[in-house]
Specification:
This protein is an alpha+beta fold and 516 residues long. The protein has helices spanning 50-70, 100-126, 142-147, 198-209, 230-239, 242-245, 252-260, 264-284, 297-310, 333-338, 383-400, 409-422, and strands spanning 2-8, 15-21, 26-33, 36-44, 130-136, 158-164, 173-177, 187-188, 214-216, 248-250, 320-324, 351-356, 359-360, 363-364, 367-373, 426-429, 432-434, 466-478, 483-495, 500-502, 511-513. The strands form 5 sheets. Strands 8-7-6-5-9-10 form a 6-stranded mixed β-sheet, covered by helices on one side.
């Protein structure tokens, strides 16, 4: 699989056109504007020859020029903007998922692209000359795992990766001080027969490149950037002469940047990954899985696990399925996510909540959606539940409208809560970064039990080209049920530096499950 990129700029608006040629004679074409995929389609039996690509590019360019010339500002549609078209979601099968070999090819292409084009900019931005990552087999630094080729399922023996930025626009030099060749992504820099000591070879390499500083993964506040173990740190410091020990700094700013920044190619494939999650959720909210009066919430949870396994996907957390209904039982946040009764039978009139996520191509999803179980004679959820959902959608809009480059998560949380409360919404916001990890590194925007803000992680500012799980809830008192319920939504999106764009839309209507 290969990428071919072209750029077209009608009226000074930049569009990147990415041609993805696959081995089965399909060409996947993605058009990006400010990293937002505005067109995405497949062509069969078309190879990107110079003439063919030129003709295709001219055709696309003409369409974009017309679109740009005739575009007129549109007013926001309020809570129903970026709606997920639930009815159009089709069941998913293993045929929709890449083979393991194809996944490995794509993972390596994504990684090489990011190491080549994104990392140099991040190292320059954060003022880091050299970044060293050290791990032993089965005790890997979480960042080092993101840099290993797809065929390396773990570190081997002791694996040391060295990234050196010579500056002046030159490529970052990538070395592996390791017994084995780390694919073609890193240059092998240790011959054990010539230099028996791995640590001494690392010292020699550092002295050859002469960096002004040397960053290692140690951090008090961000777990994912604190990957060096006590033993590896001790051995490293013992091996370095005093002149090099004095150059050691924390990699935290660079490590966070590497983890949270999504490349253009990652942003191009993320919508498909999120759509896979949406399609699985829709399949679960179906009479093939849920038979009201018989099926329990635990049955649905294990169906989700089995379905993911059948598709060759991984779940990075155990799903949860919970119920809110007309009863005396009050909502409990912990019970809804981690202490659901396994024998809870789903009944007509129930409001079901699902929390589900997958890992695919080293990227993660984290999604929460609701379904309503229709009673006999009903064709839609009651108006009072639809109103509660609309309030939660409005809270999403208030929240995402506050995103701005350089603003902290705590500031956005505070402003969101203030506006929501003024509008009569009872809000709770607990949004987290998303990417190589489900609960990823970057800006934390509230926690369910920390609505006043989160020290340190919440003070970290927003950066462009970062992805988030927009997670929150809005509470509404339902008179017909005599109690307060919560619409708990979680949809995946990215921030392009100006706007928040949902990868595959967001839930603005309930999934509906017939009673018979």
């Amino acid at each position: 699989m290969r990428w071919h990129c072209s750029k077209f700029s009608p009226n000074s608006i930049g569009y990147w056109i990415i041609f993805v040629e696959s081995d089965d004679a399909f060409m996947h074409i993605v058009i990006l504007s400010n990293n937002s995929a505005i067109e995405d389609f497949m062509l069969r039996d078309l190879k990107p020859t110079c003439l063919g690509q030129y003709i295709l590019l001219c055709s696309i360019s003409l369409l974009l020029a017309i679109q740009t010339a005739w575009a007129t500002p549109k007013k926001a549609l309020g809570p129903f903007n970026h709606s997920l078209a639930i009815a159009s979601l089709q069941p998913i099968t293993s045929a929709d998922i890449l083979s393991m070999q194809s996944r490995a090819t794509q993972i390596n292409a994504l990684l090489e692209d990011k190491l080549t084009h994104t990392l140099p900019r991040l190292m320059t931005r954060e003022g880091i000359d050299m970044w060293i990552l050290i791990s032993r087999e089965y005790n890997e630094d979480p960042i080092l795992k993101t840099m290993l080729p797809a065929t390396w399922l773990s570190a081997r023996r002791r694996t040391i990766l060295v990234l050196f930025n010579p500056g002046e626009g030159k490529p970052v030099q990538r070395y592996a001080v390791a017994r084995y060749q780390v694919d073609t992504l890193f240059q092998k820099a240790w011959d054990k027969e010539a230099q028996p000591s791995q640590w001494q070879r690392l010292v020699e390499l550092i002295e050859q490149t002469s960096p002004n500083n040397i960053a290692i993964n140690m951090s008090e506040h961000f777990a994912l950037t604190d990957g060096i173990t006590a033993t590896e740190h001790s051995l490293l410091m013992a091996a370095l002469p005093a002149t090099l020990r004095s150059k050691i700094v924390s990699s935290e700013p660079l490590a966070l940047a590497w983890l949270e920044t999504r490349s253009a190619l990652e942003l191009a494939i993320y919508p498909e990954i999120v759509e896979i999650g949406h399609r699985i959720i829709k399949s679960a909210y179906n009479n093939n899985v849920i038979k009201p009066g018989i099926t329990t919430t635990d049955n649905v949870v294990w169906w989700l696990r089995d379905k993911s396994t059948q598709l060759g996907l991984q779940n990075w957390f155990h799903p949860s399925v919970s119920i809110q209904r007309a009863s005396t039982e009050k909502f409990n946040q912990i019970d809804a996510f981690s202490n659901v009764k396994p024998s809870n039978i789903i009944l007509p009139g129930d409001l079901i909540h699902m929390d589900f996520g997958i890992t695919y191509l080293r990227l993660n999803t984290d999604q929460q959606q609701h379904a309503y179980v229709l009673k006999q004679g009903e064709t839609n959820a009651p108006e009072y539940l639809q109103h509660a959902l609309a309030k939660a959608n409005r809270l999403q809009d208030i929240f995402t409208d506050k995103f701005a480059t350089g603003v902290s998560g705590n500031a956005i949380l505070k402003a969101t809560r203030a506006q929501a409360i003024r509008e009569g919404i009872k809000p709770a916001v607990y949004t987290h970064p998303l990417g190589y990890h489900g609960h990823a590194a970057g800006t934390t925007l509230g926690m369910w039990d920390a609505q006043g803000g989160v020290p340190v992680q919440g003070d970290y500012p927003l950066h462009p080209n970062t992805a988030y799980s927009i997670e929150l809830n809005a509470a509404t008192f339902i008179e017909a049920w005599g109690k307060e319920i919560r619409i708990m939504l979680e949809e995946n999106a990215y921030f392009d530096g100006t706007n928040v764009i949902y990868f595959n839309g967001r839930q603005t209507q309930f999934h509906l499950i017939p009673s018979s």
